[in-house]
Amino acid sequence: MYVNTVWFRSFTFLVVVPILLTASLAGAQQPQPAEKSKTKIVLLGTGNPGPDPDRSGPATGIVVNDTAYLVDFGPGVVRRAAAAFLDKRIEELEPTKLRVAFVTHLHSDHTVGYPDLIFTPWTVGRRLPLEVYGPKGLKAMTEHLLEAYRVDIETRTNADGNQRGFPEGHNVNAHEITPGVVYKDPNLTVTAFATKHAMESYGYRFDTPDRSIVISGDTNPTQATIDACRGCDVLIHEVHTPAWLATRPQTFQQFAAKYHTTTPQLAELARQAKPKLLILYHYTGLSRQELFDDMRARYSGHFVIGRDLDIY
Ligand SMILES: [Zn+2]
Ligand SMILES: [Zn+2]
After folding, report:
1. What is the pTM of this model?
2. Across residues 103-126, what is the average pLDDT?
3. Biggest alpha carbon–alpha carbon distance for the chain
4. For the segment 206-237, what is each residue's pLDDT rounded down to a tens digit?
């Protein structure tokens, strides 16, 4: 009996406790059924600059009625959109339908999918130009990319070319923005707010008929993010844990202190912003469990750690 009790205690500690911990993470992670809502958030890339095969570079789809709007185009954006279409049956993310995108800032991890977004949907049939909104420098980046692919464009649109029937599909209308309302159509209004990162950078608030969604991009905690949310339905925010940051080189720690957000900072920000749901993206911790436990210990509101192709 003694042996059994010891065994049971050991079993409880070694097996049941980890199962409960895993279960609490898994339970908290269940994406909400998207059918109830007209507006869907599709996480296309929750990753960082490092090439993690399970986490594409930052990219988020906001789907309203029959239209998808993208925020950022990190590496893998078009293939993740295709996966959302093929595997999750999100018709609006079929690559030829990708027409409108908002970029938070011009760091490469958020923009190396830009030529992919310009050219891949065109090669499979997009006939209309792309509309892209973002900070100063976006027009120059767009012009340089189109020039870099001049040979491709010429050979696809000449008398012999396979895309000569729809030569407009690679065109881009790049719009450089300032804070305020930057886009409006019958589906939604998009408002940009200045954030605090290593360059001109914006977060965005999306107001649709049934939801309000705020996305941070890369930033230190800002009052502008709190003001943009103020009880919003969903806040999507970047984050890293102090324990992970302590493992990084001094130069990165100094950079992150000015331009990124820690779990204690995000917990405080979320207490003031009061989102109904907080989605962590562009995150780093020692592990998912470490990130979850760290955030849980600091924040009692509803939050999830986003995974690529989750739908909320
Ligand atoms: Zn950045
Ligand atoms: Zn980034």
Report:
1. 0.89
2. 98
3. 87
4. 999 999 999 999 999 999 999 999 999 999 99
Q: Which ligand sits nearest to residue 74's alpha carbon?
A: 2
Q: What is the pLDDT of residues 253-285, one digit of tens each?
A: 999 999 999 999 999 999 999 999 999 999 999
CA of 283 to the centre of ligand 1 (A): 12
72-89: burial string, b at 16+ Cβ within 10 Å, e else: bbbbbbbbbbbbbbeeee
Ligand nearest to the CA of 107: 1
* CATH C-level class of 35-305: alpha beta
Instruction: Please answer whether residues 106 and 141 qualify as being in contact, where contact means their C-beta atoms are separated by less than 8 angstroms.
Output: yes
What is the distance in A from the centroid of ligand 2 to the CA of 48? 6
